[in-house]
Design brief:
With about 200 residues, this protein is α/β, with parallel strands linked by helices. The chain is built from nine helices and five strands; from the N terminus they run E-H-E-H-H-H-H-E-E-H-H-H-E-H. It has two domains: about 120 residues, Rossmann fold (3-Layer(aba) Sandwich), CATH 3.40.50.300; about 80 residues, Rossmann fold, CATH 3.40.50.300. Helix content is about 55%, strand content about 10%. The mean pLDDT is about 95. Bound molecules: adenosine-5'-diphosphate. The site of adenosine-5'-diphosphate has 14 residues, from helix 1, helix 6 and helix 9.
Length: about 200
């Protein structure tokens, strides 16, 4: 089984590419969603958060108090590292289960969709990195258009990620998504075909 690590900066089009890969029948692990679930109400991760930071970081309904935690990790770098370690360990275990399940089912390929794939060292766990690339200006424009994020917030998020040019050194395939989406998706289908060969589209 070929393990593809799909990554890209904020608003590069990574989720759009992931949706296309799902449409083509490839199993896709969504690390963003897994991170949210890792600290969902009643989860093992949330219990670890309570143990580490105290029950005041949970709401009255037993959910993670995201605002309070965000304020804490913004001012306290050690707390940020602790929170990341909790979430990372759970998401990693889930990704490994996902791959094991895909192997059991005889999937020819599986995708790990991970925004910080390279920053977190996950590129070492995959056979090939697929990078979705757009310019910083386009990232800002699309992020603001998509969710009404303030320009300064998008810039801060971009600054916290590895620059695109550095990421390219790790990528086996780079999808330039600065043009029409249909061209990017055609390139994606082409790459899938290369990997799956005759199995593609069955
Ligand atoms: P990511 O998952 O990398 O944050 P998304 O896939 O959500 O990014 O894409 C960010 C935004 O840009 C979405 O609103 C998406 O519809 C849009 N988008 C993606 N590709 C293109 C493209 N080639 N041209 C214009 N808009 C695009």
């Amino acid at each position: 089984m070929i393990v593809i690590g799909l990554t890209g900066g904020i608003a590069s089009g990574k989720s759009t590419v992931a949706a296309e890969l799902r449409k083509l029948g490839l199993p896709v692990f969504d690390a963003d969603e897994a991170s949210r679930q890792a600290v969902a109400a009643g989860s093992e991760g949330l219990a670890m958060v309570r143990q580490t930071f105290g029950s005041e970081y949970l709401t009255a309904t037993g959910d993670l108090d995201r605002e309070k935690v965000a304020a804490l990790v913004f001012r306290d770098a050690q707390a940020l590292r602790q929170l990341e370690a909790i979430v990372h360990q759970i998401v990693l275990a889930q990704a490994e289960n996902f791959l094991q399940e895909c192997r059991k089912q005889g999937c020819p390929a599986a995708v790990l969709d991970v925004p910080l794939l390279i920053e977190c060292g996950w590129h070492k766990k995959v056979d090939v990195v697929w990078l979705v690339a757009v310019s910083v200006q386009e990232q800002i424009r699309r992020a603001m258009l998509r969710s009404g994020m303030a320009e300064a917030d998008v810039k801060r998020r971009i600054a916290a990620q590895m620059p695109l040019e550095d990421k390219k050194a790790y990528a086996g395939v780079v999808f330039d998504n600065s043009g029409e989406l249909q061209d990017t998706l055609a390139a994606v289908r082409q790459e899938v075909k290369k990997i799956l060969g005759e199995d593609f589209g069955r």
